[in-house]
């Protein structure tokens, strides 16, 4: 099983990234930090004659992650009760990628075999207030015809390093890490 972790945080070494590292400890994984990529905003031109223009950015790395991995771990901080803008841009651009003549058909064919896990970290009652975001991910994966969301963890933290104080999230991360090690 090949795994990629897509980190939607803009904070290097923050709580979201730390939780992702706990989940994937001692497991080979490709790390994609969206903050280190150039991803242009989505312009919806799917109903125009011209269609989507080439974006000329790093989005191909995202497509490669979907194409080459069996499991994708989406890790995002809870920003304004939703995913980070980086993560949202990545999902918005899937509309374009799925219609791209070069890899759209292969990407569509690949989606049903891709499993997903979601990690969310927030500071304002996230175990309650992040639930709509988990549902949004579920609906996105369903629309993409991916495997159903297999697992998620919602951690509570604000200041850097606070995730270590969320014992429930730590236990869930350890259990998920163990389960993933049995699959790899």
UniProtKB/TrEMBL annotation:
InterPro entries, A to Z: Flavoprotein-like_sf (IPR029039), FMN_Rdtase-like_dom (IPR005025), ISF_SsuE-like (IPR051796)
Gene3D superfamilies xref list: 3.40.50.360
Pfam families xrefs: FMN_red
UniProt superkingdom: Bacteria
Domain NADPH-dependent FMN reductase-like: 1-128
Membrane-spanning segments: none
Key words of the record: Flavoprotein, FMN
Protein name: Multimeric flavodoxin WrbA
Organism: Shouchella xiaoxiensis
